[in-house]
Design goal:
The protein is α/β, with parallel strands linked by helices and 398 residues long. The longest helix is centred in the middle third of the chain and has 17 residues. The radius of gyration is 26 Å and the shape is elongated. The N and C termini lie far apart (58 Å).
Length: 398
């Protein structure tokens, strides 16, 4: 015996409401009281109602799909793959398929005919595809803000990236670092821009010199290793390296091992000899390293000199960056590479799968009329403290 398909009318009769009320309740649209919405959904579940997605798309002139645009480097980064899976999972909960767009994007009108909305993750102001996507004529949600000149998106999900790098810099100085360095990402995304700016503002606010070196947005471990070797050769007193790009931390560890710098502190207080002499007049300084030469010049209003051998454990350093002084290592992005490293690396867990879900949820809410356009939602991170910066402690977060 073939069972009959349960229809909207069946649900309406069982729930004692109109067919249109059932439709609005199940789609999350219209003015339906919360109690009625819950009752309708419970009845639909009990009867085994399954929406006819094809018919629903025809009624709404909908494609039943949304597009996902990722940075060109995404295919080799663990972070973006986890984010994409989270976004796909959440979109499917609203009956929407996810279409992965090529790095070059597509003409606005052409892509708008194939999707109901778009997710654009970490948009770069220099990405030529982004303006066309923002002007495609469908709702667009960005993962992080878009800093370019094109029209703004319909919504955004953002992390407090300045706060996450501040937490890392505070942590390594609490563990004894006196000359931290940041391998910051190049590019014009909101994430990269915030990290570079924060390295400078943190140093000025705390009177601590921060060496800033720019590396590729998706620097490989080999590129991070080379940058760290050059960094320590240019400034052997550096006693903590915070690397930003996803998956690059093992390269920093390899550089430390090659230069005889044990990674991690010996105790929670950090010890160290402190800074010999003075570094400025309290306004701090930022050491901006030159990528091409591997050397740096000091900027800021610091008067006086910074002594060598500062940091956890003290100790001198040779001209090539070699010394027996410990080096603290941390990462702005947590993942397989940081968790599985030896020693495991302290990192900011940006929770990429949950972030992808949050971006897709906002787009779904805008498409269904549950949320007004121009909505900006925040996304939480946590600081995972591991052996690369000394004894473990409870995770921190915003």
């Amino acid at each position: 015996m073939i069972s009959r398909t349960v229809t909207l009318l069946d649900v309406a009769r069982a729930a004692g409401v109109s067919k249109s009320t059932v439709s609005d309740a199940l789609q999350g649209s219209g003015r339906v009281a919360e109690a009625t919405r819950d009752r309708v959904r419970a009845v639909a579940e009990e009867l085994g109602y399954r929406p006819n997605s094809a018919a629903r798309r025809l009624r709404r002139a909908s494609t039943g799909a949304v597009g996902l645009h990722l940075p060109a480097t995404a295919t080799r980064l663990d972070y973006y793959m986890n984010l994409a899976f989270g976004a796909v999972e959440r979109a499917q909960e609203d009956g929407l398929d996810m279409m992965l767009l090529g790095p070059s994007g597509a003409a606005g009108g052409r892509i708008a005919s194939r999707v109901d909305g778009l997710l654009v993750i970490d948009p770069e102001s220099g990405d030529s595809a982004v303006p066309g996507l923002l002007d495609a004529g469908v709702p667009v949600v960005t993962g992080e803000r878009y800093l370019g000149p094109a029209g703004g998106p319909s919504g955004a999900v953002v992390c407090d990236n300045a706060a996450s790098l501040t937490a890392l810099l505070d942590h390594v100085t609490e563990r004894g670092a006196r000359r931290p360095a940041v391998l910051a990402p190049s590019g014009s995304s909101a994430w990269a821009t915030a990290l570079r700016a924060t390295a400078g503002s943190w140093g000025r606010a705390r009177g601590v010199p921060v060496t800033l070196r720019t590396v590729p947005f998706a620097a490989t471990p080999a590129e991070a290793e080379a940058a760290t070797r050059e960094l320590l050769a240019a400034d052997p007193a550096v006693d903590a390296v915070i690397c930003a790009p996803d998956g690059s931390a093992p390269g920093v560890l390899r550089a430390a091992a090659a230069l005889g710098r044990p990674v991690g502190g010996s105790d929670g207080s950090g010890g160290g000899s402190g800074i010999g002499g003075s570094c400025g007049s309290g306004e701090g300084a930022v050491h901006q390293a030159d990528e091409s030469r591997g050397s740096g010049s000091r900027s800021g209003n610091g008067n006086g000199s910074c002594g060598e051998g500062a940091g956890p454990g003290g100790g001198g350093a040779t001209a090539d960056g070699s010394s027996g002084a410990p080096l603290l290592v941390a990462s702005c992005v947590d993942g397989t590479a940081t968790r599985g490293a030896e020693p495991p690396v302290t990192a900011v867990d940006l929770r990429p799968a949950a972030y992808g879900r949050a971006c897709a949820a906002l787009l779904c809410d805008i498409l269904a009329g549950r949320t007004a356009p121009d909505t900006v939602r925040g996304h939480a991170w946590s600081l995972e403290i591991r052996a690369s910066t000394g004894p473990s402690a409870a995770p921190a977060g915003p």
